[in-house]
Amino acid sequence: MHGYQRRRRKSVAEINVVPYIDVMLVLLIIFMATAPVITQGVKVDLPQAQAEMLPEDSERPLVASIDAEGRYFLDVGDSRDEAVDLLELATMVQDQLRTTPEAPVVVKGDANVRYDAVIQLMATLKAAGVPSVGLMTQPEQ
């Protein structure tokens, strides 16, 4: 009995990480499923109460307009009476922002225009590099 010695087993201090991996995979699937829903939409900062006037010392604004038929126009100082498509409007806005990057951009839409046309215009302006877009309003009578 002398030659036989009992060996003490060292205690194993490991954490079972399988449940944590399972939780992380479930969270990953949830985020992957909700990410496309979150990224859709156009961010618009709505006024809290009454619309504010543009500051007097600001640059002359670029006015992107939509008439009742859904045609797009861009007023860059000299009066423009011809309609442009969205791609041409984006190019014109980019050219103007290269020369005057501080110029505010304002959307002027007819009261009877389709909501989709306004959203397409605002998405086009955002893609053209416009940091923020204002909405032109008329005071209530």
UniProtKB/TrEMBL annotation:
Keywords: Cell cycle, Cell division, Cell inner membrane, Cell membrane, Membrane, Transmembrane, Transmembrane helix. It comes from the Bacteria. GO terms for molecular function: transmembrane transporter activity. InterPro entries: ExbD, Tol-Pal_TolR. The keyword Membrane applies. Coiled coil: none annotated. GO terms for cellular component: plasma membrane. Its main location: membrane. It is a single-pass membrane protein. It is found in: Cell inner membrane; Cell membrane. Belongs to the ExbD/TolR family. Part of the Tol-Pal system, which plays a role in outer membrane invagination during cell division and is important for maintaining outer membrane integrity. This is Tol-Pal system protein TolR. It comes from Zobellella denitrificans. The lineage of its organism: Bacteria, Pseudomonadati, Pseudomonadota, Gammaproteobacteria, Aeromonadales. The gene is tolR.
